[in-house]
Amino acid sequence: MALRTIRIQGDRVLEKVSRPVEKMTPKLEQLIDDMFDTMYEGMGVGLAAPQVGILKRIVVIDVGEEPIVLINPKILETDGEQTGDEGCLSLPGKAGTVTRPNYVKVEAQDENLDTFVLEGTELLARAICHECDHLDGILYTSHVQGELHDTNYEEEEEEE
Ligand code: ZN
Fold first, then answer.
1. Which helix H or strand E contains 125, and what residues bound it?
2. Rounded to 5 degrees, what angle do the CA atoms 104, 110, 113 make?
3. Which residues are catalytic?
4. DSSP 8-state code for residue 101
5. CA atoms within 13 A on the CB side of 36
6. Residue 15 C-alpha to ligand 1 middle, in angstroms?
């Protein structure tokens, strides 16, 4: 298990556009493994390569069903709307209200660079949108309605 350092908001790498993956290499396979380890360690449901400082169009997601790797993802279709709290491993301890599509159809490549199509609803649709945004240098804060809040606010209140 190898953990990578998660880049935190303010790091310019998070604002850059990532480059497509053209060839799978052992280095990129290791990166994907490390991204899963880093995501699970951070209790996240998704992580994009720029969040660990690599400007490649690679995303890992696990909303509790199965681990998903999306390489060079392209959102083909969206439908509906969901509004809820969203957080990001690059903004630890924070969350904000974001409206996203409730359904997303995405085309991507797997670790063999074979193309596939994935459909997701609810949390998976939200995660796909959030992670694909990272590949274009966009953080969820640019979609937030109102203010960000602390995710451990209630716990702190109880201790008082
Ligand atoms: Zn994020």
1. helix 122-135
2. 125
3. 131
4. -
5. 14
6. 12
**Spatial distance between the Cα atoms of 110 and 69, rounded to a whole number of angstroms:** 6
pLDDT digits (tens, 9 = 90+) for 86-124: 999 999 999 999 999 999 999 999 999 999 999 999 999
Rounded to the nearest whole angstrom, what is the distance from the C-alpha of residue 16 to the centroid of ligand 1?
Answer: 14
- Residue 88: φ, ψ to 5°: -155, 140
| Main-chain phi, psi angles of 7, to 5 degrees | -75, 135
- DSSP at 64: S
Q: Is the pTM of this model over 0.85?
A: yes
Interval between CA 160 and ligand 1 midpoint (Å) = 31
Pairwise CA distance, residues 103 & 15, whole Å: 26
The rounded radius of gyration (Å) of the Cα atoms in the chain is 15
Convert the pLDDT of each residue in 16-62 to its tens digit.
999 999 999 999 999 999 999 999 999 999 999 999 999 999 999 99
Structure tokens at 144: 């937030």
The closest alpha carbon to 50, from 9, 100, 78, 82, belongs to 9
